[in-house]
Amino acid sequence: MDDTESAPRTDGASQSAIPPIGATKTVTTPDGRSLSYIEVGDPHGPLVIHNHGGPSSRLEARLFAYSASKNRLRFICVDRPGMGQSSPQKARSYSGWAADLSTIADALRYDTFGVTGWSEGGPWALAAAAYIDPLRLRHVSSIAGGSYGTFGDNWAAQYLSKADAMGGFLALHFEPGFRLMYAALGITAEHFRGSFAKQLLKAVNDYDQRILLQPDFETAFFEGCAECFAQGSDGLVRDSELLYRQWAFDVSKIERRVHMWQGLDDRLVAPAINKTVADRMPGAAWHPVEGAGHFVAVGSADEIFAIAAEELGAQR
């Protein structure tokens, strides 16, 4: 496992105005579902498919438009099933999502591509590393991933906040309570954005606050969160349940290169969680960022995407 120290950055959100919401496009899966996405960056560049956080949606792509363009990547973010505008899917699985990612690459006519995942999207990026041929999947980055079920049901509970630990308990033992928790979150995100923003700002460190409080960024970020609940909270519930339950794949068998990015002052996902994952995953390249919080995905986006561009062979 590589162990590299990355310089802290907090200015990623201020380099360029957040672009307006682009056109939503769709890909149809072999079983007839619709997967909705938006794209930013270079339309002719190597493909990177991004796995958004939770609650979030395809609109998260806008937060990375500057860095995607700078590194000449075609960067798309797709709503996972039941979130945003993507069709619901009753039987969710990690292998099934990996197949969906390959379906998207096929539809866009890419033989090779990369994936990134931030927060609750991180485990879905790791699933891609587990299930997709590395000759096709040429880059993987998991950024501050919610790796809560990696080594067993809710194995990371000791590292979680009281709210997240309770969420994990409910997911495993009392689904109605888990659903009620996410329904309340959806109402807050959609209709009480000021309260939602205050709660988040109170939970994160100064690094994250500086990124969040950028005027364009703040609006775009919370629009992406609210869009997650366009069809209600069921999609996010099904997504999150899988994160807390023991994963269906074994990270200790992933020998291909996987970049693991982590802010060392992350107040939402404790660094010890993903450091443990990286230590047990043979192909992990560990990228700790001193002083960074959960929004390291934005603050270090230039560095993350530069590695993706190199591994995907982008013309610079």
Helix-strand blueprint:
Blueprint: E1 2-3, E2 25-28, E3 34-41, E4 47-51, H1 65-70, E5 74-78, H2 94-107, E6 113-118, H3 122-131, E7 137-143, H4 162-173, H5 175-191, H6 193-203, H7 206-212, H8 215-227, H9 234-244, E8 258-263, H10 271-280, E9 284-289, H11 296-299, H12 301-312
Parallel strand pairs: 1-9, 4-5, 4-6, 6-7, 7-8, 8-9
Antiparallel strand pairs: 2-3, 3-5
Helix pairs in contact: 2-3, 4-5, 5-6, 5-8
Short description:
With 316 residues, the chain is of the alpha/beta class. It has 12 helices and 9 strands. The protein has one domain: Alpha/Beta hydrolase fold, catalytic domain (Rossmann fold, 3-Layer(aba) Sandwich), CATH 3.40.50.
Can you describe this structure?
This protein has 316 residues and is an alpha/beta fold. It has one domain: Alpha/Beta hydrolase fold, catalytic domain (Rossmann fold, 3-Layer(aba) Sandwich). The protein is built from twelve helices and nine strands. It has helices spanning 65-70, 94-107, 122-131, 162-173, 175-191, 193-203, 206-212, 215-227, 234-244, 271-280, 296-299, 301-312, and strands at residues 2-3, 25-28, 34-41, 47-51, 74-78, 113-118, 137-143, 258-263, 284-289. A nine-stranded mixed beta sheet has the order 1-9-8-7-6-4-5-3-2, sandwiched between helices. 50% of the residues are buried.
